Structures are given as C-alpha cells and as structure tokens.
Amino acid sequence: MTSSKSQKLAEHTETAAPADTGLPPPGPDAMRVRLVITIGAVVLLAVVGALYERAVARTNHVALVDAPKPVAVVKAEGGSYRAVRSYIGSTQAWDSAHVGPQYVSAYVGSVLVRPGAVVKQGQVLATLDCRNSSAEEREIAARAKALEQRQTAVEHEAARVEEMTKGGFASENEAEQLSARSASEKAEIESLRASLVTRGLEVDDCILRAPFNGEVYERFVDPGAYVHPGQAMVTVIDRFTVRVSADAPEDDFAFVAPGTTVAIEVPSNGVKTEAKVSRRAPAADDNTRTVHFEIDVPNAKREIPAATTARLTIQVGTPQPATIVPLRAATVRGDKATLFIADHGVAKRVTVPVLGEQDGRLYLEPKLPAGAQVVVEGRALLDEGDKVATKEVTK
C-alpha cells in the first residue's frame, strides 16, 4: 500500500517538472528589446500627458457672458462744423459755333481740322467746290462792266442831245427818251451789282473760317460729302473761360447770390478750384422749383473740359464747436446719432444731436467729449454695460 503511494508520487513529480526546451538563457539582445519597449511606453505616456495638459489649459473656465467682448475703437476729435450746400452742375464752353455753309449747296473740297485742333479766328477750316458760283460771279461782273460803259455812253449822248435841243437842233422827245434809257440802264447796273454782292457772299461762303479763337470739338463731314445751307461741318468751342451752371432749390435762393464763393470740383480730371457766382436767375422754375445760377471760371490753360459734371459746394452760416467721429461708428435717426463708447472697459450707449455730415465724418454736438473712445467695430453685438476689450485703430 505504502509502496504504491510512493510510486504514484514519483510519477506525479516527473510530470510536473519543466520540460527541457534546449534554448539558451536570455542574452543581451533580449535585454535591449525589453529596454526599448519600456522607453517607448514611457515616451507614449509622456506625450499623452502633455496633450492632456494642453487641452486642459485651452479650456475656457470663464463663462462667455462674463468675458470682455473685443471691439475696435477710435478717439473722438474736437473741431468745428460749418453747414454746406452741395449741388451738381455742368461745365459749358463760353462760346460754341457750328461752322457750315449758309448760302450755297456744294460738295466738300477739303476739311483741314480734326477734333482737338487749336484754331485762331479767321483760320480756314474747310473749303467747298464752288466753281459754278465763281463762274457766275465773273459773268455778272463782266455784264455789269459792259452795261456800265454803255450807260455812260448813253448818258453822254443824252447830254449832247439836250444841248442841241436848247439850240433848236433836236426834239425834246428824243432827249427825254435818251434820258429814260440812261436811267433804265443805270438801274439795271445797280441790280447787277446787288446780284454781284450776293454771288460774292456765295463765293466767300465756300471758304469756311473759324469765327473765334478756340478748339475744334466735332467734325461731321469728310471731303466728297454734299452739304446744304445750315448744315454743320465742324464745331468750334472757346473754353478759355468755362461757364459752370447749376440749379439750386428755391429755399437756397439767398445762398447762391452773385459774389458768393463756391468750391468747384471737376471729377473728370480732379481739378479743384474756387470762383464766385457770376449771375443768378431772378425767379425759380415753375416746374422744378429751382433757381438757375452760373459761375464764370477762368481756364487759360484749358484744364477744365466742357460738357462735364461739376460738384459745387457753398459754405453757409458760421462755424460752431463740434465733436467729430467716423460715420460708420454711429446709427443716425433723424437729427440724432446713437453710438457706443468704451469707458474703463465698459460699453456705454450714448445719443448725441447731429450737426452735419461731410466726407464720411459725422459732426456731433460737443456733448460727446473729444478723446472719448468710440466703438467702430463690434458695436452690433454690444449692450449697455457689457465688458469690452478695446483695440485702437486708425480712422
């Protein structure tokens, strides 16, 4: 019995013993692998910890309602305001003439100028083919000369017959007939002379000249065209003086009185100048209820073009103190402006009477002090009493 138990115990011991695999014990390579794995695990844990700390640091632990709202501000300026009246007018040449034939119809022989050419009074601008008129003029001149010589001979004969009549050598009837014949031919000569003047005008009309010093504005025909009396061939303008004309509301009648200084700007080339009102209509237009006025502007260098737009500005009243803010900083309703100012980090809504507006700037009564920080960006999200973080910007 005992030996049987001992035998089973020995078999169990042999079964539990580890099997011999034949592998050598762990060497240096295995140790390096374990070291690399350990270091990698440590680095991974460090990276995870760093990312966690970063996420925690960027988390806003302050309620949004309590955080200051970022806004851009500018400082209000002190200054003065003077009311102005603005009008839109137009520039016009002092003189303008459509040059063309007035008496004859003919083919165009030549046109010697083009738009932009500077011309002097009397300078030839174009010519017409008037050979027929020239021939008719010469014919009438020859007829008049022949008739004048014949009339002179008849007049002398009538004088001799009249002398003979006094001596009883000729009848009075013959003398009267010769006198009547002389008078008739004399009248015919006068008629030919009148026709000659007319033909002379027609011949002169074939050479078209500049009526005054100026510039060619338009050219309507080319050589070979057929023109009629009254048809324009070129247009000449004189803009050594430019006439600026505009219309003002009838309520501004006193503001556009002759002698009033007007600031003039020509948008087409940026010219800015000043001149005084030269003339004003004595009454308003029945339909538009506006008053017409004109300004004569010297333009010796021909800087101001004709037939362009002109902006006119007239200052009225007397200057008065004002606080100046950008127009975008306020909401204007009627004659009141509502805006926000930053006062020690707190937004305050203020309403100030408006004096006027010029060039993107709002002029307010000096109830708003100069130097106040006026909110220009971010004010749409503000309420009275909100905390603000200001950043000053340029205007």
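Above is the first protein from milestone M3; the second protein from the same milestone is given next.
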Amino acid sequence: MQGCGEWLRCGGLMAVCLMAAVSCRKPAEASKSDLAEGGYTLTTADWLRAASRDDVTALKKFVAAGFEAGARGETGDSALHAAAAAGALKAADYLLKRGLAIDLAGSGRRTPLMHAVIAKQTSTVRWLLRQGADPRLKDAEGYSALMLAVREGASGAVAELAPYQRDSLDSAILLAALVGQAEVIDTLTNYGASVYARMEDGRTPLMIAAENGHKAAVELLLDLGSSRFSTDAAGRSAADIAREAGHAEIVALILRAPRPAELALESPEQVAQAMDSFVDAAIHPDAAENPPNGPSAVPSKSIDGQVLGPIVRTEEHSGDQTSNRTTPGFPMPPLVMRHYREREMPLEVRTVSKDSATLVLRGAPQPEVTVAPGETIPGSRLAVVRVQRRMEDSKLNLGQPMEVSVVEVRDTATGVSREWISGVPASAHDPVALVEDASTGKRYTATPGQRFKSADGREFVISDVRPNQIIIEDAASGAVRTLPLSGPRG
C-alpha cells in the first residue's frame, strides 16, 4: 500500500507538470495561430513588417509566442529601425519598453534616429530626440543625423536636429551648398548657420553652390545676403569658380548689373527694419496674413546705452539653448544673437588721381567709371563728397603704413555718408547683429564699440561683431566672452 501511495503521489505530480506544460504551450500556439490569421509567420522578416506597420497587437503576439524582441533582419536592422523609418511611433514606444536600446546601431552603424531622418519622418525624429536619442552619433560613413538630413534634403528633420548640434551648423550649410539643397539652406540659416561660413580653402556656401551648378541654391544664398565679391584663398570669387566649372548661367546670375537698392546706403533705422523683417519672416512664415503682435512687432533700436534685464548668475539658464553656457567668464543679461548683417557694395575703389577717383562697378555696362567730388556715381544716388590719398596702417601690408585711395560718398536720399578705401571691399554699413533680451523679448541692433548695462548697473562693451558670434567685454574687468549666433528660431 505504501508503494502504491508513493506511485499515486508521483503520478499526481507528473500530471500537474504535464498540465502546466500543456497550459504553457497553449498561449504560444494560440499566438502563432492568431499571427497566421493576421497574415504573419513567426519569422524575423514578419517581425520587422509588423513593426513598420505600427501593429503593436501583432508584436505582442510575436513576443507571447516566444519571439526575441531584439531579433535583427538580414541587414542587421532591428524592429526599432523599421518602426522609426516608417514613422510607427506606437511600435517604437512598445519596443523601447521591451528593452531595445534607443541608439541601437544597425546596418552601416545607423541608429533608429538616422533611419527616421533618411525616411523624412519628421515627427518621429522629434519623438526620438525627446526620448533621449543621441544626435551626435555617426554612421559608418561619418555622417551624423544632421548631416544625413542635409544630404537627403530632409528640411523638417534639419529643423528638429539643428538646436542639438549648433556647433555643426556651418559645416551643415557648406554640405547643403555642395549637394544643392536650397530648402535646407533656408532652414539652417533660421537656426544660426551663417552664409559667411568658409571651408579651409576659403570657399563660402555661395562659391560651393556656384561651382556645382546649383542655381536655386545660388539664388537663395544671394537673397540671404551672401557676398558676390568675397574670394577664396586663391583669390577666386564665386563667379570665377562658376566660370571655371562651365556654369555660364550662374556666372551671369552672380555678375548681373547692380540694382538701385544695392547702390544705396541705409540708415541705422533701415538696417534694423530689414533685420527685424528677416527674423519675423522666419518666426512667422504666415506674417503677411497674421502679423505678429508680440515684442517682435516693435522696431528694434540700438543697444548702445540700453539697460537690459537682470544678469544671469549661472552658466546655464532657461530659454535659448545657445545662451552663454559654454563660454564661462562672467554673468551677462540673457542675450540671444538672432541675426547678422553686412552688405558689400557691388563696386570698389581702384585709385584716386588728383581730384578724381576711378571706381569699378561690377556687372555694370560700363564697369570702370571716373568721378569727381560733386558728381554722382552712374546708376545710383550716391554723390561723391571727397577723394584723397593718405597713409594708413593696413593688414594687407603687415600693419605697416601704406598709401591708400579714399572716396567719401553720401546717399542723397538717406543722408548717410560712407568712406571707402582701396583694397578693402566697399560696404553699405558696418557689421550689425540683431540681439534679443530673452527676459523681455525686446530686440536691439549691436555694432562694435557700443555699450550697454544690465539691470543691476553692470556695464558691457560690444567688442566685435562677427557672422557667427558677438564678442562681449566686461567693462570693469576686461574679461570677454562670446555670444554665438542662434538664428531666428534658435
């Protein structure tokens, strides 16, 4: 009897185990059956297909059937890569919760974020960034997500990525010029990329676009204020480079006859208005139908002598992502650099002889003209006030005094006067930056030498204004720090 009891106990235990095994198999078999009804088989290819379809129900059945969530396809991509490329956010969220790494490297060492970029899934790019995807990782070709977005012409993704990679924006605009992505160029400048950026050999975005025959990019860069007359390290202008490459139409575009507005000197108020309009157009693309009513609608004034908001006591503060976090030295008001402007004139001073000056008008029917004081430069409203030769220290002569030709002109419409010197590009005004007080939203124009104060009385000096940054000096200590260009939407 005792042996029989033992047998019964063992038999009962075996029965329980058998029932447990059967009960474990039933859900898996049921999941396989359900998958089959949905048109799926328990394969990696269909696992990726379910992810790309945003079919979370199917993904759960795969997992219930014992499928490994981290399975990879033939190329090495995971279901998270497939979901990102398809914009399948529900599937992507499920996969992340199942433990897949957000920066999982797939084919070509590309992350899900890169797949979303290439597929131009803007909302997915935004979502992945918010989940903590690293935009600075590079694929096997050395491309970051931003550079892939530029190359593929994914302007929406560029807008999402630009605030995360401000130190790469100038490189990005140079690449955009190379591949001719005009819309991307426009987007990049809204976030702080400079049309004055240069390659190591001195080529600007305009030169690169012209060299590669990208007419739309050339037109946009000219509209954005690119200089037609800058030269590279070899002394070639954009027109010279386009001519060497055989792009006659682009040469004609760059060397077209100057328009009257290009032969005019703007007042500080006009410069401020033009900069405000540029920023407003970037922030409010539909401004023509819905004009802005906030601080941006108030015309900017010079920062000289102004009192701004309270100084920032820490190196990092809320607001604009580029605000002085990486340039320690002293606290400043929360300034943001929104825009930069310099405008070269389509002419140059060739020489002065006695009481007349010889000027070169680029693109004009008569390129070389001779004018005397009291005369007007042909095709313009610029009256010559004075011509002379004088000794002046020059960078062209290693800082040693050299004789230069000088022409002073006055715009008869605006009353603005300007002095031009031979060997130096003629300009319509000094370099100007448009800055914003983040504490009030008010905008100011800033030029070298101007001073302003913080609310607590601390004084600062605009030491220099450059295409991609402003150099600001603490008047009391002489310490300096940089304010990087963040762009209208930065």
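Note on the second protein: Confidence is low (pLDDT under 50) at residues 1-8, 10-25, 288-296, 314-327.
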